[in-house]
Design a protein that fits this description.
Number of helices: 11
Strand order of the largest sheet: 1-2-4-3-6-7-9-10
Oligomer: single chain
Shape: globular
Number of strands: 10
Helix content: 25-40%
Order of helices and strands: EEEHHEEHEHEHHHHEEHEHH
Number of domains: 1
Amino acid sequence: MTSQFDSTSRFVTVDGVRLHYCEVDGPADHLPVIFTHGGGPGSTGWSNFRQSAAAFAARHRCYFLDFPQFGHSDRVPVEGPVFGWHARKLLGFMDALGIRQAHLVNQSFGGCVAIRFAADHPERVASLVLIGSQPVERGVMSPLPMFSKHAASLMTDYYLADGGPSLEKMRTLIRCFELHDDNRLDEESLRLRYEASCHPDHIELLRTPGAFGEWENLMPVFAQVTAPTLIFWGLHDWFGGIDVPMLMLNQFADARLHVMGNAAHHLQSECPDEFNAVALTFIGDYQ
């Protein structure tokens, strides 16, 4: 289901940080779903998962969260290990909204935050869905391309080189790094990503040493993830090989893996119908 769907924009303050989220109402007899986004330029909860809104809201109230430094949330420096810092904001978000427990559906960077959160607060997670998340420093078979010299400047190239953000630079970035099939680019998501990437305070963060926190290898906490977990992986994911989700599959308490052969990093955007059907069937077992 990929039809247009509207959401309500809201704000909440956690630890002095103003967080933005979009909310889509749904049945109150099922646990809510919280969507978290990837770390690419202009990423937001809504732009990453807007094509899942209608399908999920038919069964659940849905929250599409913008992490600090993204979307309409405050651009503040991260202090200390990056995933733990964001996980504390996710906990504060749930507390502020009175969400006792939720399903967490997470793209890439958001999945790393959710892994940290699930390890620290297992009672708050009904189920965990991860898409293309790389919570380790290196794969078993090869280094992760995201840490190579070819990707190390991805963010600064987009924001600082050749005149800064532009619609065409965003189009190229999404096609090059996030999709397997260029024709699957969604024009509305492209527009939302580009507009969110133009926030002037983000340039200031890029120029502030240490503003994005310390890298955190999450392998030591894998065994503490007890929530039922479904890991999605695109066979053509540029940021890591299949050994990365296999590490999680082997060490999480209750995990399974779904690989899509004709998809890359943003498979929920590239193959929304398949993603929505599989993910909803999975979380439906843990209401």
